[in-house]
Write a structure and sequence with these properties.
By secondary structure, this protein is α+β, with helices and mostly antiparallel strands. It contains 5 helices and 7 strands; from the N terminus they run E-H-H-H-E-E-E-H-E-H-E-E. It has a domain of about 130 residues: Gcn5-related N-acetyltransferase (GNAT) (Aminopeptidase), CATH 3.40.630. The longest helix has 20 residues. The structure holds coenzyme A. InterPro entries: Acyl_CoA_acyltransferase, Bact_Acetyltransf, GNAT_dom.
Length: about 190
């Protein structure tokens, strides 16, 4: 079978927001399972998602509970990508907790199943999260990425994020060290 061409097939990608999930307990349960599978498999394969070891089921469930509570409070957005009827990706942003940073939010844990990468899913998720941030009146959307994560950094730059700083050799994975790259999208300055 011919493999799918890279970076297309966006038409088959459906990006749902968290409200669609929480309205259906069955869907929410399946989402927690899929999110764990996607995140744990990616970390196992060396992905730069903040974990050295694959997160446990409980750890991911706790994280999702936290994000979904924040979504209900208007302090977060969570997007889930479906491709060909399967959950293949997720991403979210959380408003900063520090009182002086409340107008701003940080995008975290953008993750697409390895088998579904290169087909526009990550781009669709990130674009939806940016639109959510705009809609919620977020002023500055930040994120950080590991310096060697060229695909992710290319994606973020292509959607308008700019680098505002870098901590050299800050990310520790065993004995290896990588730069931590800080990016921002100032939504006050965009149309
Ligand atoms: C980063 C990630 C979310 C991108 O998701 P994706 O669905 O593969 O991305 P898309 O198909 O939407 O492609 C977006 C860009 O990423 C790059 N890219 C993604 N997959 C690629 C691949 N297999 N080969 C080459 N480039 C690729 C391309 O530069 C593409 O840009 P283009 O549209 O101009 O060609 C995904 O690779 C991933 O989950 N990586 C592991 C976790 C991670 O690093 N998350 C980010 C933490 S900061």
């Amino acid at each position: 079978m011919t493999p799918p061409p890279p970076h297309d097939a966006t038409a088959e990608t459906t990006v749902l927001d968290a409200l669609a999930l929480t309205s259906d307990p069955d869907l929410e349960g399946r989402f927690a399972e899929s999110a764990h599978r996607i995140l744990a498999d990616l970390v196992r394969g060396g992905a730069a998602l903040g974990w050295v070891e694959p997160p446990s089921r409980d750890e991911v469930a706790e994280l999702l509970d936290h994000v979904l509570s924040a979504v209900r409070a208007g302090d977060a957005a969570l997007r889930v990508a479906h491709l060909d009827g399967r959950i293949v990706g997720l991403g979210y942003w959380l408003r900063y907790a520090r009182p002086t940073h409340r107008p701003h939010a940080d995008l975290e844990k953008l993750a697409v199943d390895a088998a579904a990468q290169g087909r526009g899913v990550g781009r669709a998720l990130t674009a939806a999260l940016i639109a959510d941030a705009r809609e919620a009146g977020i002023e500055v959307l930040t994120l950080d990425a590991r310096g060697d994560n060229a695909d992710a950094l290319h994606l973020y730059r292509s959607l308008g994020f700019t680098e505002y700083g870098r901590l050299p050799d800050f990310v520790a994975v065993g004995e290896r060290r990588y730069d931590k790259v800080f990016c921002m999208l100032d939504l006050r300055r965009q149309d």
